[in-house]
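CORE FACILITY INTAKE
Project code: CF-77B
Contact: R.S. (postdoc)
Sample description: multi-component assembly, two entities in total
Requested service: structural model of the whole complex
Turnaround: standard
Below are the sequence entries exactly as provided by the requester. Do not edit them.
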Amino acid sequence: MLLDRNMSDDGKVLTIVMANKFDFEIVQQFREHYAEIDTGVEEVIVDLRLTQYMDSSALGMLLNMEKSLSGKVARIRLINCKTAILNIFKISRFDKKFIIE
Amino acid sequence: MRILVVDEESLNRFLLLYMLKQEGYTEVREAQNGKDALLLQEEFNPDIILIDVVLPDGNGYDIVKTMKSRAGSMHLPVIFLSAMDDHDTLVKCFESADDVVCKPFDQTILAAKIRAHARSRQLSRDFEAQHQELLIHQQKIEREHTIVEHIFNNALKMSPRRQQLMQYHIAPASNFNGDLFLVNTSQLGSLYFLIGDFTGHGLASAIGALPVAKAFIATSKKGLPIDEIATTLNSTLLDLLPSDMFFAAILVEIDPSGQKLTIWNGGSPDLLLLSSDGEIRRHFTAQHMALGILEQEEFESSVIRYTANVGDRLFAFTDGVIEVKNTQGKMLGMRCLENWLMAEPDIDINKLVTKLGIFKGPGKQTDDITVASFTCQPLANQQVDITPSLPWKISTVVEANDIRQTNPVILLVEALSTQPALHRHGGYIFTILSELYSNSLEHGLLGLDSSIKSTDEGFLQYYELRKQRLNELIQGQIELEVEFIAQQGLLNIAITDSGSGYDYNKAGEGKGNVSDSYGRGLELLQRLSTQIEYFAGGRRVKVIYHLHD
């Protein structure tokens, strides 16, 4: 499993659960998960509970998602970040673009 | 039934032997004095003794006392033969023997007495045989318990370093503990602990500890979130335990700052958080049922998150603690325990256990008792390495063939993460190595230009192109070196590629815009490491990473 996708019952929240390693190797797959998003989705959650390893290509992928979805969804939340992942987001000032928990 | 006859008079012995033969007793021996009687007791091992009160080498009373004491725990019936039947003689006879027959004796009565004493001898023999059997059984059980205890102790042994992260005390009520306390650290440096209580105590409840420990150690080492660990443990126990057995437990994750707590409490007493001046900040009351009861689809894994202050102290107990009873049968209770802690928030766990002992007073401990505490402060401050780290160096050269097939970075990081000194740094080391490797491969060997990544389409295109050029790569190599300087607590990381070089002066130009989807690698490198140096026209890059940040 590289990543997993869940839609809430009311169709408003899309959750993408990332794997242990988040980098360019899943670029295509990650993009497919949000590319053809249904109208009605209000919130996209990227769940990083399993992610231990991440590099700058992952940051690029998240930013591309944000660009592509801006105007379509109200919020993008990055949740369950481990300390190292959280620090990488802070260094990259991602807190300005995303809700990070 | 073996019978020994002791009498000085040969006529008396003859009459007795004759009578016994008529009664059907075939194993009969005779002695004419006390000395011979004692020798025969050794040799013949009689079941019943008929003995005269008066013997040529002393009185019968003393001989009987010796014979009785030799028989040990076996009952040896002795019947005195006495010429006198006065009050004092009879009383004296019964002090050491079991019966008296007066001479001249009535054959029918003597025969009846011998039969009665034969019965009690037989009872004593049966009893002795059962006693021996029980002794053997008990020894066997003790031996088995020792073996199982040994296995448990080894399976649940915690490394001294992990033990130092928390204060705790474990006191089982019997050989085996139905309570379980485990501490572990994840590869990313979080502290995990589990405190729990299986229904009952003794071996039956301790047996569940092995699979729980195995699952907890494996999942916490990986740094999985608490809700997922709870779910895993629940399904493990559901498969394993009989339906009337379950495991009340608290699972806690503490981040490396020592302040962010994630808690799952299923059926256990409240977890308490106290400030350093003894104020109770929070009760973490059980929100769930114990583990091993609910089917996976009913199971609730939701957790409580809480940010504590440095110096706050977290206390965890199993129910054996608050249910300790004093001699009047009154339970300690949560309120009383809280009062103790509020009065002395920095109490040593061993002192707390002593207070529990004083409250209980003399008497048997009826349930397993476990107490643990954690004082909130950065975990790095509390980690005491028992063995000093040795310096080491690791390097690998990947050729075109390897580069096409694998990504060496993750393999290298996973190998490095097993080093105790690097436990909490795996995530950062991955990022650094990954940035360096991507630069060497993508720019040095594959000649890709990052600027095409500026659009969403271009981003994908870049990685398509990377894949394509990688497949065509037939020449080139990348060397990765990691050197651990133990004394200074730092890593020297170097990467060298065989490519055409790289204009590192231009690399960071015009970047820093939050929304740029490329060009962040260098910034990350600069922020995560203390020094970056380029050599050989950008083909070799050296980075220093400090472990104490």
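Facility notes:
- The first helix of chain B runs from residue 10 to 22.
- Chain B has three domains: 3-127, 156-382, 392-546.
Invoice: internal transfer
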